[in-house]
Amino acid sequence: MRQRSISAALICLALLGSANGEEKLSMSDADRKMYAELLESNPAEMDVAEGEQLFGELIGTTEYAKMLGVKEKELPKYIAGFPRYIEPAKKVVTLAQSVQMAAAYAGKPVPKLESKEMVKMSAYVKSLANGQKTNIDVEANAHMKEMMTLGQQVFEERRGGRGLSCNNCHSKEIVGRRLRMQQLPDLGAKETAAAGTWPAYRMTKSQMVTLDKRMQQCMKNALMAEIPLGSREIVALEVYVTNKTKGNPINIPSVKR
Amino acid sequence: MRKVLMLGLATFLSAADLSQVIETPDATAILKKDALPAARAYTMIEGCVSDDPKAIARGQYIFHTLNGKDAKENPPEGLTRLLPNGKPKQMGNCVACHNIEGAKGYGNIGPDLTKYKELYIDSGVRNAQFVYQKIADPRLDNPKSVMTVNLANGLMNEREVCDLVSYIIAPKK
Q1: Which residue in chain B has the smallest CA separation from A174?
Q2: Where in the sequence is the domain holding A178, given as residue range(s)?
Q3: What is the pLDDT of residue B16?
Q4: What DSSP string runs through B154-172?
Q5: φ and ψ at residue B96, rounded to 5 degrees
Q6: pLDDT tens digit at each of 173 positions of chain B
Q7: Burial of B125: CB neighbours in 10 Å, binned 0-12, 13-18, 19+
Q8: What is the mean pLDDT of residues A7-27?
C-alpha cells in the first residue's frame, strides 16, 4: 500500500518533476522482428523432436505410464498436473524427476537433471500435454499442501546480494511496472502462463530453457544464490509458480524474450 | 492398475529403488548462507554527507550502474570495476526502479527522485538520515518495501551509502 506513496501531496509534486514521458520498452524494433520470426519457426521444436527420439529409445510412453501407474491414454491429463505427488517416489516430484525414475524403472542409466538430454526429454514429455490446461492440485494431499506452503515461503524470502525476494518483482502490486526498461510479468496471467509455456526458446539466451532454469536465471540476476535443480525448495517454487497459472493452456515449446 | 503393479514383488522392490534415483540435492545450507539479517536502524557516520564533487560523482555512478564489470564508463576515483577477490563490484542499479536527473532507461517501481533536494529536503519532509536508512535497509520504516537492501547485507560499505545520499540530496543542474 505505502509502497509508492511518500504522501499524497508529495506525489503530486513528484509527478510534476517527471514529465519526461515514457521511453521505449526493452524490446528494440530488431528484437521485435526476431521474436516474430521465432514464433514462425521456433528453434526449440527441434529440441522437442530430439527429446521424443531420446525418450523413445530410453523409456517410451508405455513404460513411463506403467511406472506412474496410469493408463497410457491418460498421460496428457496426468502430465498437466505436475509437479505432483507420485506413489513410487513417496514425495512431490517434477516432470524431469519422474523421467529419472522412469529411466531407472526401464533399467537404463538415469540422466542428470542438468543434462541436455534431460532438458529435451522433459520438454517432449510435457508437450504430450499440449492443449491440456495446467491442472496442478495443491490441495490433493498433505505432501502437496506442504510443498505449496514451502514454495510460498521461498518465493517471499528476501535474500542474497540485494536482499530481494521473487515477490519483490512478481507480487500483485508490482506487476506491469518497469524494472529498467523491462515490464515485470504477472506470472499467473493468461498471456504469461508461466507454467504452461516452459520449456521455451528464450531469445536472449538463444536456447531452450526449462521453468526451473528460468527461475534460476532470475535468482542469478537478482544476486540470489541459485537453488539447485531437484532440491525440495526448487520443486516447491515450481509448485507455487505453477499453481499461479493453473487453468491456462499448455503450449510447449513456446518463445520467450 | 497401480494395485496390480504393486502386487508384483519385483516391481515393489524397484519402486523402493525408484525414489532413490531422483536427484534431490539439499539446498538448506545454500539458503541459510544467503539469508538476510533482520532489519535494524543505521546511523550516518560523521561527515557522511558531503558536497565534495568526487563523493557526488561516486554516488552518481553507483546510482546509475548495475555492476563494475559490465559498465560502459570507467568508475570515478575511489571506485573500482572489480573487488579485490576478482569478482565484479556490484553497484546500486537504483535507476532500475527510480527516475532522477539524467536517468536513462529508468524503471518506475520506486518514487521519482528528481528534484529531491527541492521537493523533499528543503521542504523538511525528509532529511539525510532518512535517506541513509532507506538505502542501508529500507525495511525499517516500511517492512513491505520492495526496494533492495544495500548496507545490511554488505553489498555496499558505509562510505558508498554516504556517497549515494550526497548525490541524491545534492542540488542538480
Answers
A1: B109
A2: 2-256
A3: 56
A4: SSS-HHHHHHHHHHHTS--
A5: -60, -30
A6: 444 444 334 444 455 578 899 999 999 999 999 999 999 999 999 999 999 999 999 999 999 999 999 899 999 999 999 999 999 999 999 999 999 999 999 999 999 999 999 999 999 999 999 999 999 999 999 999 999 999 999 999 999 999 999 999 999 98
A7: middle
A8: 40
CB contact under 8 A, A162 and B22: no
CA distance A127 to A254: 10
Contact B27, B129 (CB under 8 A): no
Q: What is the largest CA-CA distance in chain B?
A: 81
Contact B22 A89 (CB under 8 A): yes
Q: Find the residue in A nearest to B90 (Cα).
A: A161
Look-up of cell digits 545534492: B170
Residues A84 and A139: beta-carbon distance below 8 Å = no
| Nearest chain B Cα distance for residue A60, angstroms | 17
pLDDT at B15: 55
Q: Which helix (DSSP H) or strand (DSSP E) does residue A62 occupy? A: helix A61-68
Provide the whole-model pTM: 0.90
CA distance A159 to A57: 42
> Residue A161's domain is classified under what CATH number?
1.10.760.10
Taking CB atoms and an 8 Å cutoff, what residues of chain A touch B146? 3, 164, 167-169, 171, 173-174
Pairing type for strands A200-202 and A254-256 reads: parallel
Helix (H, G, I), strand (E, B) or coil at A43: coil
C-alpha cell at A188: 499467473
- Give the CA dihedral A140, A145, A150, A151, nearest 10 degrees: 40
Residues of B with Cβ-Cβ distance to A153 under 8 angstroms:
none
Domain total of chain A: 1
A97 and A84 Cβ atoms separated by less than 8 Å:
no
